[in-house]
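Form P-L/3: holo structure prediction, ligand copper (II) ion.
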Amino acid sequence: MKLLIILSFFGLTAMADTYEYTIEGMSCSGCKNMIKSAVCGLPGIKECKVEIGSMKLTAEEGKTLDQAAITQALDDLNKKNKEDYKIAKATKVDEVKTSTTDTKKADKK
Ligand SMILES: [Cu+2]
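OUTPUT (holo model):
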């Protein structure tokens, strides 16, 4: 079941992106710091905000978040520290760009 959920994330990573993850098993700032050091240093991550129970990651410009690497980092952390952190939910955050990207150019006639 867990695997199925994780696999379903891969289909959603086509665009460069920001994800919000709900993480189970975090209960204190110690958890927070461990996850921070395990995940935030992964390649391709531009922004990394970790709170107790959740984290929000943004990929570098034009890149996609490596969901497998993130899951792997948590697994490694779990093994090393006998913790049980897991991603319970991943939500893609649509970047609301305030620039003109959204303003569609009028069709040339
Ligand atoms: Cu803790």
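COMMENT: The helical segments are 2-10, 29-39, 67-81.
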